[in-house]
Amino acid sequence: MIKVCGFVLAYLFLFMSPPGYGKIARISLDGAIDPVTAGFVVRCIDQAERDALQFVLIQIQTPGGFGSSMEEIIGRMLSSEIPTVVYVAPSGAKAASAGFFILMAADVAVMAPGTNTGAAHPLMAIGGFPISGGEAGKTLEEKITSNATAYLRSITSKRKRNVEEAEKGVTESKSFTEVEALNSHLIDFIAENEAELLEKLNGYSVRLFSGEDRILETQDREFVDYQMTWREKMLAVISQPNLALLLGLVGVVLLYFEFTNPGFIVPGVIGAICVLLAILGFSFLPVNYVGALLIILAIGLFVAEVKVGGFGILGIGGIVSMVFGMLILIDSPDPAVRIGLYTALALTLPFAAILIILMIALLRSLRQKVATGNQGMVGLVGVADSEVGRNGRVKVRGEYWTAHSSSPIAAGKTVRVLAVEDLALQVEEVEE
Questions:
Q1: For the chain, which domains are there?
Q2: I need a labelling partner for 292 at 20 to 30 A (CA). Which of 24, 362, 414, 431 fits?
Q3: Residues ≥6 apart with Cβ < 8 Å to 103
Q4: What is the mean pLDDT of the chain?
Q5: Which of 152, 12, 178 is nearest to 89 (CA)?
């Protein structure tokens, strides 16, 4: 009877358990924490819960990112029905700023040798540009720091980690090596590689944020790798601030070239695609509209410099306006997701030069004399084939034309075409 019950239980375990039972979900975060990354992590945790996987392993290396995206990831980790293990790896990686918060929020926090974490002091900014100083600014900075510290304290205390040391990562921008983090009870252990990580996790007891206890079993367990879809990969690329800005500027130049030189088609098509991709990329980012207006103003100043001749003043103003616009375009003080000064200069100077060159070429083409059609006849010199008065005939460009003049012109005299009226030329005598 006991054997029969055993066989029945084994059958139920093997054939009635969810298909992913006991397997481990594995995802990798490499780069800044942004809205696309946050959506990817949330989707993966949702899928892991549906597949009834044992826990989610998140390998992370990040310089930081957007606070709102970080909070979205942490919120989903805390509400997860399965444990989350955050592993800072490989050696040389770091989990700074937003990455530090995510590491502290994990059910199990692990670091590889040669890694670091911390430096999570919140930066205060106006329009995405870091500022400091002044009594009002100091008060606001203290409020932001206090809020971030309270948020971190609520997480670390629930995870039974060293709250005082974790707060130093915010209040003092302190960074921790893997050994310092372990000795300060900020992480659970150090693992040199994934094999050692699984070995240490086997039999490890985890208490979820909900209070439920789980025992991890990692021996001979399979991984289920979750990858970004092609759509998420594309959005992750074009939502990078520097690339989105580059796409927008290249698109503007190509569209301008197409409008001033109709018929090429290819520059117009590529330019339109670049502009639309840039708009799509910026739609995932917190854009400061003052920065966008400064960039538009800069383009107008470049055009005005060529049209009215500002002796370089308008051009310099355009460069300054575009640089400042780029610096504050992304409404975030975190350098990991903001456009830097060198990037702004590297994009502004070539863009200004290209736009001015195209404007000069356009104005020169507009000032050129028409060489075809009736208007192309104006200014040409010919010879009077007969006496020209109210009527007559002239030879211009090897062709005979009916002509008239306000003053008589003798046959054989040199004439110049003043206008073309109904296939008749108005001419005047050219003095020798």
A1: 18-228 (3.90.226.10), 231-367 (no CATH), 374-429 (2.40.50.140)
A2: 362
A3: 60, 86, 88, 95, 109, 111, 117, 186, 187
A4: 83
A5: 178
